[in-house]
What does this fold into?
Amino acid sequence: MTLLIDGHGFHYEMENLCRLFFPHDAIKVVHEPAEDEVVVTTSLRRGEDKTELFVEYRAYITNERSKAEVPNHHADYDNRCELVMAQLLFGILAKVCRFTPKWGVLTGVRPIKLMRRLMNEEGEAEARRTFTEDLLVSEEKTNLAIDTVRKEDSILQLSRQDSFSLYVSIPFCPSRCAYCSFVSMWVEKSGHLLPKYVELLAKEIEETGRVAKQLGLRLETIYFGGGTPTILSAEQLSFLIQAVNRSFDLSFVREFTVEAGRPDTITREKLQVMKDLGVTRISINPQTMQDDVLERIGRRHTVAQVRDAYAMAKEVGFTNINMDLIAGLPGDDARKFADTIRQVLELDPPSITVHTLALKRSSYLNQFGQDDYARADEVEAMLACVQQNLVPNGYTPYYLYRQSRTIGNLENIGWSKPGYEGYYNVYIMDETHTILAAGAAGVTKLKQPDGPYIERIFNFKFAYEYIDRFDEILARKKKVCPFYEKYGKCSQLPG
It folds into this structure.
């Protein structure tokens, strides 16, 4: 497909909308007319008093076109032109493809953050109108956004200007799942790096704790993610958790999460170490409760192992357990997915996170052309099944976000029973406060106190880079204090 950008700079939004409707097509963006089998033309012409916007879809024997006008004196001229052009393109592609995505022209990852801002600035009624009439979001998704804002707000109010969260990255897995695009390394190939990685990670944790204490920051949540943190031995887990416990003031910590993730990495000894050292929340993530689908996506574990790991965690004493599912996996369908929901509800976890499959460029699923995942309408049915079954069982949505290239531009939702919300999930998606990260592929996000600005400090992506250039990792920690110093928040630092 060729996307012609003529007379405007809205190529990013127009490309995202084309990809929404044609997720498998390569999209070539050009600025001069081109011959191709499928061409989308988006054109802007500014006259003396008004601007004409024109969109055309031409493919084989199909030709659809639409146009609109925006007054040149419009108070928010550029944004209005971009929105109207997006509406035109959305309308044409929805007609051609006979499919109307429920999030309308919204393609960003944080629709809840947008809804919250609109509600705060304009009130709920006007925010609802903006979503449904301007952004073409369905009533169903608009209601979901409003409900999620209300639930999130009670968690966001717990954060203060001096609050922060800690993220610890373990970028190793027992195998690579077909849908995964995270930076992670197979233990079979890179396991020899683990001992040195754990040793250095503990040092970075200690340095991060030193900086946080000097700044007088208040730790709210801790999150061990990856990868699969429970790929570590019980001794390695203990070593890292103890490094956290001695390096930070834990007086105000509301939640300490470890992504146990793959049930084939969970042992009673590891669970006991985590429980004894203060971990309060874990995830045991089946993604599906269908053995044939698990095999298709390279999970290398069974449904029976999921059940066994969950029972073991309960026996050790964990009461706050999350389970992740993915809607749209290869080999799955609405019937199987409904059975997965039934089986998970039998286990009765206090929180369930349901993701929509994202067709990431770096995933095996995308690279090797595996295309038997569910269609957008079938994934919509799966998510409807989630709501129909979870709400009557006491779950409510407490956070929501999207990823690029998700099937049907649909969402990921965290559902929980009252009191079991994952605070870290809310804080990082809302960009509420600073996240200090340690480990390969970790990204520190420094949040301006009482302001919107976020500055990022990136660690090296791969474990071997992290190990080889560790001095540079520690040097980057020195950027944290100058950031706070700009806002008068660094008075506790010596000198």
Summary: The chain has 18 helices and 18 strands. Residues 194-215 form the longest helix (22 residues).
